[in-house]
Design a protein that fits this description.
By secondary structure, this protein is an alpha+beta fold. Helix content is 49%, strand content 10%. InterPro entries: DUF421, UPF0702_alpha/beta_dom_sf.
Length: 180
């Protein structure tokens, strides 16, 4: 029965740790800002997972509360520092982050870009369904974002009734051979 409950389990310590870590996360997020857990880049996503892992190991007594808090603060400070550097240096930004990639240009599926991104046509179609696209003519663009998310830019009805702002595709690679 020890795998369900053990009298050695530090339940009170875990509950106190939960409260403590919750307060630490709130304070750090208030200091560093809302971008702390944003998922703008692949490294943002990796840092968020790393922080979750630190929280887990801290709450299961693998490490002390102070040690876990310092590790979380360190990672959040690094993300803050890198986001600051990215704003100052476009070269660093392009080195750290992948540029978004166009998967569909209007109703044309860009098969070379799908192949480059290792995305199957069926996965693309699933994203179109998820976005409630009823036919290819509604699609303005489908973009594989730098975070790995897929954005579907489409009209609700007939494209003739809506204007598409091309600025929405600024910074998006049109082909795998071009950088932007």
């Amino acid at each position: 029965m020890n795998w369900i409950y053990s009298t050695d389990d530090p339940l009170l310590q875990t509950l106190i740790g939960c409260f403590y870590i919750f307060i630490v996360i709130i304070i750090l997020t208030r200091i560093i800002g809302l971008r702390s857990f944003a998922k703008f880049t692949a490294y943002d996503f990796a840092f968020t997972i790393a922080i979750g892992s630190i929280i887990s190991s801290t709450l299961t007594s693998s490490t002390s509360l102070v040690h876990g808090s310092i590790a979380i603060a360190g990672l959040l400070l690094i993300t803050y520092f890198f986001s600051f550097l990215q704003r100052k240096s476009p070269a660093l930004s392009s080195l750290i982050s992948n540029a978004p990639l166009l998967l569909m240009d209007g109703n044309d599926i860009l098969y070379d870009n799908l192949k480059f991104a290792r995305i199957e046509k069926e996965q693309l179609i699933a994203k179109l369904r998820e976005a409630n696209v009823l036919n290819y003519d509604q699609v303005y663009a489908v973009v594989l974002e730098s975070t790995g998310d897929i954005s579907v830019l489409h009209s609700s009805y007939d494209k003739k009734d809506e204007n598409f702002d091309e600025e929405l595709l600024s910074g998006v690679r049109r082909s795998t051979s071009s950088s932007v």
